[in-house]
Design brief:
The chain has 126 residues and is an all-beta fold. It is built from no helices and eleven strands. Strands 2, 4, 5, 6, 9, 10 and 11 form a seven-stranded mixed β-sheet that branches. The protein has a four-stranded antiparallel β-sheet with strand order 1-3-8-7, with no helix packed on it. A hairpin with a 6-residue loop joins β5 and β6. The chain is globular, with a radius of gyration of 13 Å.
């Protein structure tokens, strides 16, 4: 089993940057595919980015391409989401998710993930 704890959220002005971290417990985190999702008030949770367990494959939602970068450091059991050129519409609670996988895959839908963090708030002011 894996426990996930997000951090790094906060208030930033439009055009600014934040780096979110997702720290995982468990010695086998390197075998977990990991993703980031977000949920704005009154909206459904949506996919942001995903990374395979080795970090060799990544995938982004269209609106995040070129602005967000997902990465991981398996030695530190941590996955990161670097967010640049932030916009007010990026305001949401950001969640980290993980699932044990046997292959180098990226998972892009909520129902594919088994473990979730508690979320971290990101607020972008205009």
């Amino acid at each position: 089993q894996v426990q996930l704890v997000e951090s790094g959220g906060g208030l930033v002005q439009a055009g600014g940057s934040l780096r979110l971290s997702c720290a995982a417990s468990g010695r086998t985190f390197r075998t977990y595919s990991t993703g980031w999702f977000r949920q704005a008030p009154g909206k459904e949770r949506e996919f942001v980015a995903a990374i395979s367990w080795s970090g060799s494959s990544t995938y982004y939602a269209d609106s995040m391409k070129g602005r967000f970068t997902v990465s991981r450091d398996n030695a530190k059991n941590t996955v990161y989401l670097q967010m640049n050129s932030l916009k007010p519409e990026d305001t949401a609670v950001y969640y980290c998710a993980a699932k044990y996988v046997a292959r180098q895959v990226v998972l892009t839908t909520l129902r594919e993930y088994a473990y979730w963090g508690q979320g971290t708030q990101v607020t972008v002011s205009s």
